[in-house]
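Notebook entry, cofactor series.
This is the third protein in the set we're modelling with a bound small molecule. For this one the ligand is pyridoxal-5'-phosphate. I'm keeping the input format identical across the series so the outputs can be compared line by line later. Sequence and SMILES below, as received.
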Amino acid sequence: MNSKKQGTKAVWGGQSELFYQGATQVPIVNSVTFGYDNVDDWFDVAIGKKEGHIYSRNTNPTVAVFEEKVRVLENAEAATSFSTGMAGISNTLSTFLSQGDRVVSIKDTYGGTSIIFLEFLPKHGIEVTLCDTANHEEIEAEVKKGCKMLYLETPTNPTLKILNLKRLIKSAHEVGALVVVDNTFATPINQQPLELAADIVLHSATKYLGGHSDAMGGVACGNKDLIQQIFHYREINGASLHANTAYMLLRGIQTLELRVLRQNENAMKLAEHLEKHNKIEQVFYPGLKSHSGHKIASEQMTGFGGVLAFSIKGDFENVKVFLNSLELAHLAASLGSVSTLIGPPKVTSHVEATVKERKQLGIPENLIRCAVGIENIEDIIADFDKALLKI
Ligand SMILES: *Cc1c(COP(=O)(O)O)cnc(C)c1O
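Returned structure with ligand:
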């Protein structure tokens, strides 16, 4: 399966053999526990000598197919899953960081991740250094001082800043640090951090992998040894993915390539259109030549993704008029769904930041983030134009 292309892997990964009684589709195994006909077999599975399942907090046949599919898409040796993306992130950080360790990351990580860095890790005596996101020199200098882990995310929320993964991973490996990359925004269709030498790739499967805003999950990919350690932490701490949800995610992920290619195209067209619009101040999309990360993104990504951001001329009142006038977008948090999701960071991801803090992060007060869906982009553009006319 490794030699196949991404669209084929999304369909066939983990599903190339028939299931129970010849089923071509994955059975949802809603069994908490798994029985054995004799104690010897049970023992062999329990000590890992033989493959099998014992208890669904640890492993489950439906969940295993989901893990296998993401593993194949990320070209990883191993993968393990979680009940949410945040469970994947917190479990991964907890697996590798303990008292006295130091982690280097960026200021623009996902909001929940940022709270772990600022609020929870310091409580456990873990030192956290958050660098200015696009300042590669600063990140390299902090890494050089020594750290256990470099934690990265690219593109970032909400202004789609781009980090040069190859360059930063190299600097981290020089000091023996582990590199973790949250690949949620890019998806394995647009970016494969393991190919760029990252150690662990994380996803909120709630977003593009599932793709329909109806199921939550997380997944970590990497080499067997690292994933075994994360798996062990998760099986005991219990943030396990449920078989029903794993099935929903599996159903969604089969169309991952179709959706993401369409979303790449839609976002590019919308970004180009908005950049020319006289009511728009600035558009942030790594596919645009005007974007500060365009060059690096062109080198390390095969598509620029479905998320863009733009600021509307004038004050926040104009943002409200525009958003309230849209017909074909949900005013809602999250991203990666088949339908367009839109909202101002001031109200969503950065609602708790002060005006000054948002300014420091380069987030204008009149910024709007848009996660484009798979609709026909002509309809979305017409809807946006109509709403912009109301200003
Ligand atoms: C949504 C998101 C998460 C958290 O995932 P949940 O499934 O909501 O827990 C982490 N990282 C990024 C980049 C996200 O967009």
